[in-house]
Amino acid sequence: MPQSSTITQQNRIDRAYAKAHEQARVGNLPTAITARAWSNGITRWRYSVASRTTGGDVWLVDLTDTHGTLVTACDCPATGVCWHRAACRLAHTGQLTAHRPVHPIASAMAAD
User: Fold this and answer.
1) What does the domain layout of the chain look like in residue ranges?
2) 84 and 96 Cβ atoms separated by less than 8 Å
């Protein structure tokens, strides 16, 4: 039986990570613009990532790290997986450089 030509979710994720690495090679890296930590160990980061197709457009990515579980949201028009989110995940885990990384966590610990 022939293999389906439908792109799987994992294929989309793999392509997003490949695109993030490709963009990093040409200098299009995420910029960490804010970070916040809560006393329970959860951190939330906001990154900006320049559009690779539309000059001047910048997309914002929110990344929440709950004890190693990463959740991201991007305001780009893509539905589903986007390379902006992949780039920020890679930057957050140290697999990709980010511009002006916010370090240490810029804001005070918030009360629970």
Assistant:
1) 9-92
2) no
pLDDT band at 55 (very low <50, low <70, confident <90, very high): confident
pLDDT, tens digit, 9 for 90 and up, residues 66-105: 999 999 999 999 888 899 999 999 999 989 877 765 554 4
CB 89 within 8 Å of CB 21 = no
Going through the chain in order, the beta strands assigned E by DSSP cover: 31-37, 42-50, 58-66, 69-74
Say whether 88 sits in a helix, a strand or coil: helix
Q: What's the rounded Cα separation, in Å, for the pair 86 and 76?
A: 13
* Among 64, 59, 89, residue whose Cα is nearest residue 77: 59
End-to-end CA distance of the chain: 55
Residue from 26, 35, 37 nearest 61 by CA: 35
